[in-house]
């Protein structure tokens, strides 16, 4: 059917995530640092996302698109509310150095505050990962030795670090870097930084 639907200009998009946060239907997501219309049938065509975009990257177009599917949106929202946590404990200080759930795992090492700052933390970061959390400032400990042992003694496929933009969070990133170097393994890794307003930098 021909209907009104949003269009995102990738050239203008700066990846701030404001539109994705404003979209109540979950039609917009962040992919490789850019906003994307993930599903036509999730876009209601009302444009709550338009005024939040600081660069004017979003506009309305009329084109062939699937009809808005409110039932599918509601079902997706219910699924999003499910916990994605796959193991316990999660605190770096408490987690064992060896555990069966580490076998073949994609590891998430996150600063404590990130899950509070970033609204969709379970779906965007915890899902599909074994999760370790800590705060180097509050714990007053160097995590690098324990993380080294975890990487050395288990079959870890990848490591994602999620930290806040604040300077004290540099400690968790540094600990992971040291652990990766000292483990003697080549493990793909990346760092995601969350701003204090909850957006991804």
Structure commentary:
- The protein is built from seven helices and eight strands, in the order βαβββαβααβααβαβ.
- With 201 residues, the protein is an alpha/beta fold.
- The chain has two domains: 2-80, Alpha-Beta Plaits; 100-194, Rossmann fold (3-Layer(aba) Sandwich).
- Strands 6-5-7-8 form a four-stranded parallel β-sheet. It has a two-stranded antiparallel sheet with strand order 1-4.
- It starts with a strand and ends in a 7-residue tail after the last strand.
Structural topology:
Layout: E1 2-8, H1 18-22, E2 28-31, E3 34-37, E4 58-64, H2 70-80, E5 105-111, H3 114-117, H4 121-126, E6 130-134, H5 136-139, H6 144-153, E7 156-164, H7 170-183, E8 189-194
Helix pairs in contact: 6-7
Q: Could you tell me the strand content as a percent range?
A: 15-25%
User: N- to C-terminal separation?
Assistant: 37 Å
Q: Indicate the percent of residues in helices.
A: 25-40%
Count the strands?
8
Helix-strand pattern, N to C? EHEEEHEHHEHHEHE
The total of helices stands at 7
Work out the radius of gyration: 19 Å
Q: Biggest sheet, open or closed, and with what strands and sense?
A: 4 strands, parallel
Please state the overall shape, judged from the principal axes of the Cα atoms.
Answer: elongated
Q: Would you give the CATH topology of the largest domain?
A: Rossmann fold
| Overall mean pLDDT | 92
Corresponding CATH architecture of the largest domain:
3-Layer(aba) Sandwich
What is the name of the CATH class of the largest domain? Alpha Beta
Secondary-structure content class: alpha/beta
Residue windows where pLDDT falls under 50 for at least 5 positions = none
Widest sheet: strand ordering: 6-5-7-8
Number of domains: 2
């Amino acid at each position: 059917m021909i209907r009104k639907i949003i269009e995102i200009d990738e050239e203008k998009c700066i990846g701030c995530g404001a539109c994705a946060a404003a979209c109540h239907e979950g039609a917009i997501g962040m992919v490789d640092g850019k906003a994307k219309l993930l599903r036509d049938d999730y876009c209601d065509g009302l444009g709550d996302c338009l005024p939040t975009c600081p660069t004017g990257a979003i506009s309305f177009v009329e084109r062939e698109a699937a009809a808005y599917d409110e039932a599918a949106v509601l079902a997706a929202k219910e699924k999003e509310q499910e916990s994605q946590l796959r193991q316990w404990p999660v605190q770096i200080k408490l987690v064992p150095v060896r555990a069966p759930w580490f076998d073949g795992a994609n590891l998430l090492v996150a600063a404590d505050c990130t899950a509070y700052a970033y609204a969709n933390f379970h779906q965007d970061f915890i899902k599909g990962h074994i999760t370790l959390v800590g705060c180097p400032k509050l714990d007053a400990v160097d995590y690098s030795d324990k993380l080294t042992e975890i990487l050395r003694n288990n079959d870890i496929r990848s490591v994602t670090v999620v930290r806040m933009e604040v300077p004290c969070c540099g400690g968790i990133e540094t600990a992971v870097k040291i652990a990766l170097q000292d483990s003697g393994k080549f493990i793909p890794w990346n760092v995601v930084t969350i701003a204090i307003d909850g957006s991804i930098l």
